[in-house]
Amino acid sequence: MRFKAKSCIIFGVLLMGLNWFPPIAQADSTINFGVQAEIPENQIDKKQTYFDLQMSAGKKETIYVDVSNPTNSKVTVEVEVNSATTNDNGIIDYSEGNKKPDKTLKYDMKDIVKYDKEFQLAPKETKKVPIEIIMPETTYDGIILGGINFKQKETEVSATENEEKDKSMVENRYSYIIGLKLTETTNEVTPDMKLKSIKPGQYNYANYVKVNLQNPTSTMISNLKIDGKVYK
């Protein structure tokens, strides 16, 4: 989130898959299109609505997302595929496209997918949007985790406003994200965690201590509890 002197933009994310995502994202009053993943045969868990794919080293596959426009106006949709990160609240985040990856990240999702970064939908149109996956040539254990982000073009959203808004008001932008998890082997990866740094900082004029933790393994650390103490 970026803050300016008089205005700020809050991004709302409508998530799909990975346990806490809703099964199907439908268009509503705040967003002018809907998305749904077409689950392929190599889906590991076919009950899930995100992509949970079993693949082989060097394999190529094209997956599809159905994007629909139920409105009477043309809609321009922007697409971005990102690797998963962890935000300051300990929640997996798929929207931080500009965040520098950790040096232990062996395969960045951005490097193994190809897709059109923008497309248009005519009124009442549904389009199959292809995402091409090209797996690394070297076999690996663990997962490659990311998300496919769909959002309406910003200039188009602004053009639909019927009245000028004060620059100090909050502008909401919403997007849909479909999880993309790629697995090659069934070999279990043992979770690990490193303490990288502890330093003071400020957020909203409040002092705090920021602890930087690193997961150098290609697996998620679930149900993590951290016991921290502050001494004189």
Mind explaining what this structure looks like?
This protein is mostly beta strands. It has one domain (8-183): Immunoglobulins (Immunoglobulin-like), CATH 2.60.40. 4% of the residues lie in helices and 42% in strands. The chain is built from two helices and 14 strands. It has helices at 109-112, 154-159; strands at 8-16, 34-38, 51-54, 60-68, 75-83, 85-86, 92-93, 113-114, 118-121, 126-134, 143-152, 170-183, 194-203, 206-214. Strand 13 (194-203) and strand 14 form a beta hairpin. The chain is globular, with a radius of gyration of 20 Å. Residues 1-11 and 16-29 have low confidence and may be disordered.
Structural topology:
Elements: E1 8-16, E2 34-38, E3 51-54, E4 60-68, E5 75-83, E6 85-86, E7 92-93, H1 109-112, E8 113-114, E9 118-121, E10 126-134, E11 143-152, H2 154-159, E12 170-183, E13 194-203, E14 206-214
Parallel strand pairs: 1-12, 3-12
Antiparallel strand pairs: 2-4, 4-10, 5-9, 5-11, 6-7, 8-10, 11-12, 13-14
* CATH T-level fold name: Immunoglobulin-like
Terminal CA distance:
34 Å
CATH class: Mainly Beta
pLDDT < 50 runs, ≥5 residues: 1-11, 16-29
- Whole-number radius of gyration? 20 Å
Q: Considering DSSP H and I runs of 4 or more, what fraction of the residues is helical?
A: under 10%
Order of helices and strands: EEEEEEEHEEEEHEEE
What is the residue-averaged pLDDT? Answer: 83
